[in-house]
Specification:
The structure holds two protein chains of two kinds. Chain A is built from 15 helices and 26 strands. By secondary structure, chain A is α+β, with helices and mostly antiparallel strands. In chain A, helix 1 packs antiparallel against helix 5 and helix 1 packs across helix 6. Chain A is elongated and about 140 Å long. In chain B, 40% of the residues lie in helices and 18% in strands. In chain B, the strands form two sheets. In chain B, strands 4-5-6-7 form a four-stranded antiparallel sheet. A three-stranded antiparallel sheet of chain B has the order 1-2-3, covered by helices on one side. Chain B starts with a helix and ends in an 11-residue tail after the last helix. The chains are: A alpha+beta, B alpha+beta. Chains A and B meet through helix 1, strand 1, helix 6, helix 8 and helix 10 of A and helix 1, helix 3, strand 1 and helix 6 of B. Strand 1 of chain A pairs antiparallel with strand 1 of chain B.
């Protein structure tokens, strides 16, 4: 098969251009109307005038008729004629007088005009001698009668017999160029037995036959996997962990049913390739873990060392779940994305929700739970507390009336995305908490000051998405433990789980806040929990002083509440995965708590960047 | 999608549609180019015996008289047929009239056609059969005007000569190489019914798909000739 592929390629190089010309000229000739090409649509079907009876008799014409093979009586251009054929050819006689009948310019014009039914008029007649390119099958003197129609019709009248030989026009002239390209007879145009066309034709025969054979190996089962195509159409993805040099290990949502080569291309990651995924160039190397057996193409294209180190060709393997993919250097980059703040609102006294409208859709859709890197530019930002809602203004009394932050260096801060992947490919939502100074002389948090200074319409720059915080597809149920603005990725996961593309598994979401005001998206989750039976939304408030007596929910630290609740329903946790996001202390406490319950570490995911 | 991937997929899917036809096109093309056209036309089947000169001593009927009897015929022709001078009257009806007596000769007899065909045919292959075709004109001679005499000769290429049964005129000749050409032509122009209509939409669509397939193939070829540009991943 590799030989056939190579043969096909080299034949393509030799005869591909001619093959294209054959297809082009074939298409052009097929597209044109043959009747127009032949001038048939402008040919008169009027019958000639009846033949006269008063014609010269055989005895009178005896000398002229002698030695002839045939004598025909018919209507000439302007009267009945005898056409006498003998070994030397044909001659005409006026049938009434017996005199020689010359085809003059007038008679050529008359013959042409009688034959023609188009909108033009015969404007000129010129005498020439065939053969020439427009009249190549004839030999001898002819009249070319030109008409002034838009096709430039020319009728060729035999200079001896006065008969119409050919009806040419511009349509025919174009057709004839394509015919020449088709027959490869660039001189006479009609000889399709020339050696050039025979050799090219034989090469083309091998080209098409080798191509036909290749069809059987080029198509694979997955080309006709309409189930996966339907799942792709519905937006289903397989989350893979992707490693690449110079980039942190992150999840990537890949389309199901495709090869890694095609699936990566869909996310804007173009692996090097000269063959476009045919398995014949050996360039689209990746490393899969767990590894897979190399196929024949890989054994041929990759070195033993490469195969031993686990490198495979991305076009040879289909995307599988629970697989880590390693890309070689230079394939996936950390390109900067630009966008505009589209809205800003307070979620809690010190937490804002920022919506960013990207200038272009994300090249790689994010996976629920992932984050982006926000570029915090150098310079000074001014946070104006004037926008704090009145009811929370009291919380801001201890904070200086203007709060500024300046730095000479650009930095980057990580923020989790707080919406589900399929909601809007161009909109990202972040939850940002204003980070207070660590000490009296320390500045306010650089990133959060920047975000708090942003107003709708401000341009922002970011890159990503990154991260591998998120449940695996094999988990049967999820336990989420979060606090503060650690809400963001958990909200993304919950919203995705119960969206059209989600798996709709049971979720127990333990959320910790200090007081009621700090519960982010409280209304949204209460409504969702009421609607979705599988979702259990449990809030624990830790600040006893700030919590009024009427609070009927849990009090205390969220990990303590979670411990009590999970201990009671321990049996249900067998296939659960645990996702933790919040302040480092919360994560540490929650991890300890889970270890205490005997939960293996590989079922616990956490995200703890200074939220 | 990178151009190379697009070209490969487009080429692959377009050829899935047109692949069989492309093989038929090239196969037929090779057939038609390899066998010289004069052979296809069957020139070699003709004896090349010059047509007889008109025996004027036996012509007693004047052309004017024939015109008078057949006023609507636009063409009458005096010639020799089977050794006798005859007028072919080619009007709405085709008839053969004796130039000696003025009597109607047509339809021409099987015996006469046998003699004429024997003279016309080169070589001495025996005549296998002579049949009169009145309707259901065979596809291979579909444009001819019936009634026709069909003269089949023996031989590997099964030559057939066709004569007008009305005038005795030679109409056409067919043989197996011609018949093969006709099949190649049928596949070439994709008119699987009449084999002579080049203005059919199947052909237009198929050639358009074929053209795109070829263009995508050329696009793919450009990339396939490129050099390796991937990073080295193992020693």
């Amino acid at each position: 098969m590799i030989f056939v592929r190579s043969l096909h390629k080299w034949l393509g190089l030799i005869v591909g251009l001619q093959m294209t010309l054959w297809m082009l000229s074939g298409f052009a000739m097929a597209a044109m109307s043959m009747n127009q090409v032949k001038g048939g649509d402008r040919r008169s079907d009027a019958a000639p005038p009846p033949l006269a009876r008063q014609v010269q008799t055989v005895p009178a014409m005896q000398e002229v008729f002698q030695g002839s093979i045939s004598v025909a009586l018919r209507y000439g251009p302007d009267g009945p004629v005898y056409e006498i054929v003998n070994a030397a050819g044909a001659t005409l006689r006026d049938a009434r007088t017996g005199q020689a009948y010359e085809i003059t310019a007038e008679r050529a014009l008359a013959a042409a005009t009688r034959d023609y039914s188009g909108p033009g008029r015969a404007i000129s007649a010129e005498q020439i001698t065939a053969p020439f390119i427009e009249l190549r099958k004839h030999d001898g003197p002819v009249w070319r009668v030109n008409f002034d129609d838009r096709r430039n019709t020319s009728l060729y009248i035999d200079g001896v017999t006065g008969l119409v030989l050919e009806r040419r026009n511009d349509i025919w002239r174009v057709f004839d160029i394509f015919w020449m390209l088709h027959t490869m007879d660039y001189v006479g145009r009609d000889n399709f037995n020339n050696p050039l066309v025979i050799v090219a034709g034989l090469a083309a025969l091998w080209l098409s036959m080798s191509g036909f054979i290749l069809l059987f190996s080029s198509f694979r089962g997955r080309d006709f996997d309409f189930g996966s195509a339907l799942r792709r159409f519905r937006g289903a993805t397989i989350t893979s962990v992707v490693k690449a040099p110079g980039r942190e290990v992150s999840s990537l949502a890949l389309a199901p049913g495709l090869s890694y080569f095609d699936a990566f291309a869909r996310t804007g990651v173009n692996l090097p390739s000269n063959c476009g995924g045919a398995g014949s160039c050996g360039q689209c190397v990746i490393r899969l873990s767990p590894s897979v057996r190399p196929d024949k193409d890989e054994q041929r294209q990759l070195s033993a060392a490469e195969l031993n180190e686990g490198w495979r060709m991305a076009c040879r393997h289909r995307v599988r779940a629970n697989t880590e993919v390693e890309l070689p250097a230079g394939v996936i980059d950390n390109e900067l994305l630009s966008g505009q703040v589209s809205s800003v609102r307070f979620l809690a006294p010190f937490t804002k929700e920022i919506r960013i409208r990207l200038d272009d859709p994300l090249p790689r859709p994010f996976v629920a739970g992932q984050y982006i890197q926000l570029v915090i530019p150098a310079g000074t930002f001014l946070v104006d507390p004037a926008s704090v809602p009145d009811s929370w203004r009291g919380k801001w009394v201890d904070i200086p009336s203007t709060l500024d932050s300046s730095a000479a260096e650009e930095v980057r801060r990580l923020y989790s995305i707080a919406v589900a992947p399929n909601e809007n490919p161009r909109e990202l939502v972040l939850n940002v908490r204003l980070v207070p100074p660590a000490g009296a002389s320390k500045p306010w948090g650089r990133g959060s000051s920047y975000v708090f200074s942003l107003l709708p319409g401000d341009a922002v720059t970011l890159c990503g998405p990154y991260g591998r915080f998120g449940p695996s597809d094999s988990a049967r149920s999820l336990v989420l433990i979060g606090g503060g603005s650690g809400m963001a990725p958990l909200r993304s996961i919950v919203r995705h789980e119960y969206s059209e593309q989600g798996l709709k598994r049971p979720i127990r979401f333990f959320y910790g806040a200090r007081c009621e005001e700090d519960i982010l998206y409280r209304e949204e989750f209460e409504q969702l929990a009421a609607k979705v039976e599988a979702l259990d939304w449990i809030v624990a408030l830790s600040d006893d002083l700030a919590t009024p007596d009427k609070w009927s929910g849990y009090r205390g630290f969220v990990h303590d509440v979670a411990r009590r609740e999970l201990t009671e329903s321990f049996k249900e946790l067998a296939d659960a995965e645990f996702l933790l996001c919040g302040p480092p202390a919360l994560i540490e406490a929650a991890r300890q708590m889970l270890r205490g319950l005997g939960i293996a570490d590989d079922r616990v995911w956490y995200e703890d960047f200074g939220v | 999608m990178k151009p190379v991937t697009f070209f490969r997929k487009a080429h692959k899917w377009a050829t899935l549609v047109i692949g069989v036809q492309a093989v038929l096109w090239t196969l037929g093309g090779v057939y038609m180019t390899v066998i010289p056209l004069p052979v296809i036309h069957g020139k070699h089947l003709m004896s090349g015996v010059a047509p007889s000169e008109i025996d004027w001593s036996r012509v007693d009927i004047d052309p004017g008289l024939v015109v008078m009897a057949n006023p609507d015929a636009p063409l009458i022709r005096l010639t020799m047929f089977d050794g006798d001078p005859v007028y072919q009257v080619l009007g709405e009806r085709h008839t053969l009239i004796s130039a000696e007596t003025g009597g109607v000769v047509s339809p021409v007899s099987e015996d006469a056609i046998r003699r004429v065909a024997r003279t016309d045919f080169s070589g001495d292959a025996e005549i296998v059969s002579v049949t009169l075709i009145t309707d259901n004109v065979p596809l291979e001679i579909q444009n001819a005007r019936p009634p026709l005499w069909r003269v089949d000769f023996a031989g590997w290429n099964e030559p057939s000569f066709f004569y007008s049964a009305e005038t005795g005129q030679f109409v056409s000749r067919r043989h197996n190489l011609w018949r093969g050409f006709d099949i190649a032509w049928m596949f070439h122009i994709m008119d699987y019914e009449d084999r002579n209509d080049m203005d059919n939409w199947l052909l237009r669509v198929a050639t358009a798909v074929g053209l795109f397939s070829a263009l995508f193939g050329m696009g793919l070829l450009i990339y396939r000739l490129g050099f390796r540009n991937r990073a080295k991943v193992a020693p």
